[in-house]
Each structure stands twice: as C-alpha cells, then as structure tokens.
Amino acid sequence: CSFTGTSQSDYSLRNCHADAFKQVIYPITYLLIFFLGSVGNSLSIYVFLQPSQRKTSVNIYMQNLAVSDLMFVSTLPFRATYYLLGSHWVFGDILCRIMTYTMYVNMYCSIYFLTVLSVVRFTAIVYPFKSWKVTNMKYAKITCAVIWVFVLAASSPLLSKVIAGYENPEKCLDLHPSSTQRLLMMNSFVLVVGFILPFCTIIVCYIFAIKALLKSRTPQRKKAVCHKKALSTIIITLILFLLCFLPYHILRTVYLVLGGCSPANLFVHKAQVVSLCLAATNSCLDPVLYYFAAENFKARIRSLYRR
C-alpha cells in the first residue's frame, strides 16, 4: 500500500520496529483473502452470468463489484511475496505501480458500488413508485461505467512513483518519508469524496429506510420479501463500511499527520497495518452481501450445490 510507511530517519526500515509485525501479518492475511476472495468472487461472477439468473440493476451493480474484488485479490500473492522476502520487491517497476493503483481502484469502486446499491434499495422502500430510473437496466450500466471511469482516472496519479510515495522500486509497497506531506494533501480530498460522502449517504439511507418500514403496515408477501432484501443490503453495507473502511480511513489520516513510523507512534503504525488488512478483507466479504441481497442468488447457489 502506498500509504504504508517507513522510518523518517532511515528509509531502509531498520529503525521501524513495526517492520517485523508487517512481515507476519500481511502475508498471512493477504494469502487468506486471496483464497477466499478468489473462490467467492469467481463463483459470484459465474452465478451472475448464468442465462437463468434474473437480470436486474441490483445484480449489475453486484456483478461489477465482484469483478473489482477479483481484480484486487489477484494482486495479493505479489503483495504477500514482498513481505515474505523481507519488504523486498522483485517483480519490476511497472508491476510495482500497478499494485498500488489496483488497490485504490478496488477500494473506491467498492465504496461507490456499495453506496449505489444502498441508494437503489433505499429508493425501492421509500419511493416505490418513483424508483424506475434508479432500477432501470440502462441507467445501471451507465452508472457502473461512470464509476469505473471516474475511479480509474482519479487513481491514475498513483501510477507515478513520485505520487505513489516510493523512490526505490525494491521498496515498492513502503512510503518514502519525503512523500508524506504530498500524500496528506491528496488524502484530504480522497477522504471527503471517496469515503465521507458515501458513508453519510449510506447512513441517511439506513435511517430513512428504517423509518419508512416502521411506518408501513404489514405488507403483502411479495412486498415483504422486497423490503427484507432492501434492508439486508443497507445493513450489510453499513457493517462493511464500519468494519473495513472506517478504521482504515481514520488511521491512514492519523498516520500521515504524525508523519511516518517512529518509536513514538509505533502503536498507530501497527494499528494502521491492521486497518489495511481489514480494508482488504472487504474483497472476500462482499459475496456475503450477494448471498443475502442479490436477486435469485441464494436459490442459484443452492441449485449448484445440489448438482
């Protein structure tokens, strides 16, 4: 991760006591996420692409989310190898740049797709007769394309090693101290646009969806199923934000403000390492959302299991 740091006084990390901690935690976590995420997201994409699978806007958003997650987990063996080799990158400069770029593309595509899913489900509960536009298939495909283009373009500066924060390709996934202030400025923009606004949107959706459900009388069976899936989507998304994205964005900001790894802020640095692992875990937790909230997904999985 381009925001994972080094000692301010010595870029070789010999004074950064969290280095040994990273070299244990990251490989174990990344390889576990790689296994679970590869299986879960490959299976999810397979189900979404089945001819018998119901084509809905919700499933289109989830399919794009699964593609984003699969793209990210495919980079994790390279990341694990880096830390297993004692923070030494052996795969060349180009692949190094792709590692950091892919991580942030996945993270913010995931955040935006989860936010759009919550808005779609929220609209189905609160404005059932006005939701045709957000549930329209064409509108869903256009929204997915806009999210991909925006995130790919906004993350493109990370393809520059000067912006990404490393000077020596052999220390690819570690931040050089001289880049901290530049990344802190970038972080301010990303924090608002990439996390705070989506997170606030999901909280608003959750509050108003709950209020609408409490006000409604006992609904018909079909309507009750719709409401259950809508509420499941919003609740699971909120949990994913609280578990995976909130700790990471808080600790990344604190870490950059403190200015890197030193004995004085060792605890913050270790906490930031754990928060990055939690953020990466989102890639293997999203299939849980598909199972409980996607249209016809649960039935299709059971059918495949019986086969």
TrEMBL record:
Q: Which CDD domains match?
A: 7tmA_CysLTR2
Listed A to Z, the keywords are: Cell membrane, Disulfide bond, G-protein coupled receptor, Membrane, Receptor, Transducer, Transmembrane, Transmembrane helix
What Pfam families is this protein classified in?
7tm_1
Example GO molecular function: G protein-coupled receptor activity
Its GO CC terms? Answer: plasma membrane
**Among its keywords, does the record have Cell inner membrane?**
no
- How does this protein sit in the membrane? Multi-pass membrane protein
Q: What SUPFAM superfamilies does the annotation carry?
A: Family A G protein-coupled receptor-like
Q: Where in the cell is it found?
A: Cell membrane
| Residues in G-protein coupled receptors family 1 profile domain copies | 40-290
Major place of localization? membrane
Q: Which domain of life is it from?
A: Eukaryota
Q: TM spans, by residue?
A: 28-49, 61-85, 105-127, 139-164, 184-209, 230-251, 271-293
Coiled-coil residues are: none
> What is the protein name stated in its UniProt record?
Cysteinyl leukotriene receptor 2
Q: What is the lineage of its organism?
A: Eukaryota, Metazoa, Chordata, Craniata, Vertebrata
